[in-house]
Design a protein that fits this description.
Helix content is about 45%, strand content about 15%. The protein is built from 15 helices and twelve strands. The strands form three sheets. It has a five-stranded parallel beta sheet, sandwiched between helices. Strands 6-7-8-9 form a four-stranded mixed beta sheet.
Length: about 325
């Protein structure tokens, strides 16, 4: 006999997925109209809602802001006590209410009408006060809640959250929002670390260990020792990177004969290299999965070395 908790869990999932399917089937041109409005808004997308709709609205505003659409959340209760001044005529408002009859939204609705501020209504009831007041209606599914009492916001809040994601992702795609743009809005924490490029952490200029392929090995060893990155890059007469010598290469010449050789006699040709816009996480993956593993990568522009990144640099950046 199946565990009652598992039965309950599966019922909740099924009920919420059903609500999303209904919403999917009901999508119409109002979505495009809302996206057009949000994209052309000169100010910000102001998200508002009360109770659970407000909690979801805060998340929607945060997602919009982090994906290229300036946005913030205004609490309808605070709006009635001065925060209406945060909403300007250059903004648009996304008001959320499952029933569409949330009393606390009335002052914001009146304010939008008074100052001709575009209002997007997100509600299940097009005939509600909010549904009728909205310039554009984004209709939520009217399929009840997963809650067996039919009271706790469950399916409705899931649908609202997903509708917010639909708006954010569509606007992201419209704007051509890139990983670089995303990183600029997420500089901290693990996410920021993974979105860093090697150009952000690489050693450059005089810190790069480089030497001519025709130089004697004693000179190469001096460069390796001074730069302390465990390698030296070999350059041809045009300044192109053509080889690398690592600490491991030196250990293979323990008989001392290396001191009589030139760089080109010892170097490994065609060293692994990466462009400057490579993500740090990708650079670390290359190091870990190249043969026996390597601990440094030269960063090149064309064939010219512009930097070098060591595995320790990646780890210090928080990518592990």
């Amino acid at each position: 006999m199946e565990n009652k908790d598992l039965i309950s869990a599966k019922h909740t999932i099924d009920k919420e997925v059903e609500a999303l399917r209904i919403m999917e089937d009901s999508l119409n041109q109002n979505l495009t109209r809302a996206l057009d409005l949000m994209q052309k808004t000169e100010g910000r997308v102001i998200v508002t809602g009360m109770g659970k709709s407000g909690h979801v609205g805060s998340k929607i505003a945060a997602t919009l802001a982090s994906t290229g659409t300036p946005s913030f959340f205004v609490h309808p209760g605070e709006a009635s006590h001065g925060d209406l001044g945060m909403i300007t005529t250059k903004d648009c408002v996304l008001a959320i209410s499952n029933s569409g009859e949330t009393r606390e939204l009335s002052d914001i609705i009146i304010y939008c009408k008074r100052y001709s501020i575009p209002l997007i209504a997100m509600t299940k009831n097009p005939d509600s006060a909010l549904g009728k007041a909205g310039d554009i209606l984004l209709q939520l599914p009217d399929d009840g809640e997963a809650c067996p009492l039919g009271l706790a916001p469950t399916s409705s809040t899931t649908a609202t959250m997903v509708f917010g994601d639909i708006l954010a992702i569509a606007l992201l795609e419209r704007r051509g929002f890139s990983k670089t743009d995303f990183k600029q809005r997420h500089p901290g924490g693990k996410l920021g670390a993974f979105l860093q490029k090697v150009s952000d952490i690489m050693h450059k200029g005089d810190e790069i260990p480089l030497i001519s392929e025709n130089a004697p090995m004693p000179d190469a060893i001096l460069v390796m020792t001074a730069k302390m990155l465990g390698c030296v890059g070999a350059l041809d007469d045009q300044g192109n990177l053509i080889g690398i010598i690592t600490d491991g290469d030196l250990r293979r010449y323990m008989d001392g004969s290396i001191m009589t050789k030139k760089v080109k006699d010892v170097m490994t040709v065609h060293p692994k290299s990466i462009p400057a816009d490579t993500m740090v996480a990708e650079a670390l993956n290359i190091m870990n999965n190249t043969g026996k593993g390597i601990t440094q990568l030269f960063v090149i522009d064309g064939q010219k070395p512009v930097g070098i990144v060591h595995m320790h640099d990646c780890l210090k950046a928080g990518v592990a």
